[in-house]
Design brief:
mainly beta; seven-stranded antiparallel β-sheet; 2 helices; Jelly Rolls; 2 domains; 26 strands; about 5% helix
């Protein structure tokens, strides 16, 4: 009979609490990275939980035209509506459950604003934006964009009381609809009280979990809302258990580390200071393009 390989559960290396801050035109985000003393968890550059917050009619804010270069990102919306426009002519509208992928690569300009309807009515907004670094050669790739409707995101039940939505990478026998340049896996899990989930992660990969609702346990350590848990690279499986009385919601994020020098300045992520300076020069010279106002009509 074939021998089954025993899996080893990774231990918890550290927990980074998210910091509440205002971003863009003034919308609330909870951000575990980057924060003081933690510039990245390679290759994860930024994790923003947008909200949760409620907007009165006419009060919703967004992030007007701004550049990106040198990384890729996924935006995932749980509530509200957001509209994307960019200098390559892409236009997307996110509603609850939808996501979108954007490769900043060689550089572009985009905007993320509440939709006209959401601005008119107001309402509840909650979502995530995650930036992941690119290897040096991949930073020259042409930008691209993909809308990811909620119906295209596979939903599985890997264990009793556990639900997993796989946005990117392969997990629990399915593959997410987002195909990234840097290999990474993005899973939104919901655990009923008492439920436990285990996800295989290749050795050598960075493995993390961001808890955004409820209380749980990783090993012997309690984790709760706004905790970003970083696993040690001492096994091939990560595990999370709901120890509370309410559902636990978390993002399980794992990726191949880049292991290269990283220099960040605002929306530019490169390998050297000189490359950051050239990025600014290219942006100021208009080489990233402009958002066509006709598209926004």
């Amino acid at each position: 009979m074939p021998t089954q390989t025993a899996h080893t559960t990774r231990s918890l290396a550290r927990v980074i609490p998210a910091v509440a801050t205002l971003e863009g035109g003034g919308f609330l985000v909870h951000r575990p990275i980057p924060t003081r003393g933690v510039d990245q968890v390679d290759p994860f550059l930024l994790i923003d939980e947008m909200g949760p917050m409620d907007h009165a009619p006419g009060e919703a804010e967004g992030a007007p035209d701004h550049p990106h270069k040198g990384f890729e990102l996924i935006t995932y919306l749980l509530a509200g509506e957001m509209e994307h426009l960019d200098s390559h002519g892409n236009h997307g509208l996110l509603r609850a459950g939808d996501a979108q992928y954007m490769l900043g690569g060689a550089g572009l300009v985009h905007s993320e604003m509440p939709s006209a309807e959401f601005q008119r009515t107001g309402g509840h907004r909650h979502g995530f934006q995650i930036w992941v670094n690119l290897a040096k050669n991949d930073k020259a790739l042409a930008p691209r964009y993909k809308d990811v409707p909620a119906a295209s995101i596979p939903v599985v039940h890997p264990s009793e009381g556990a639900t997993a939505r796989v946005l990117a990478g392969g997990a629990f026998g399915v593959s997410g609809p987002v195909h990234t340049v840097t290999p990474w896996t993005y899973v939104h899990v919901t655990l009923a009280p008492g439920a436990r989930i285990e996800q295989p992660v290749p050795r050598g990969w960075t493995a993390t979990a961001y808890v955004f609702e409820g209380t749980g346990r990783i090993g012997t350590r309690e984790v709760r809302r706004s905790d970003y848990a970083v696993f040690a690279d001492d096994g091939d499986t990560i595990a999370l258990e709901n120890t509370g009385r309410e559902p636990l919601e978390a993002l399980l994020l794992s990726a191949t580390p880049i292991n290269e020098p990283m220099v960040r300045y605002g929306p530019f992520v490169m390998n050297t200071v000189d490359e950051i300076q050239r990025a600014f020069e290219d942006f100021r010279a208009g080489r990233f393009g402009e958002i066509n106002p006709v598209v926004a009509e």
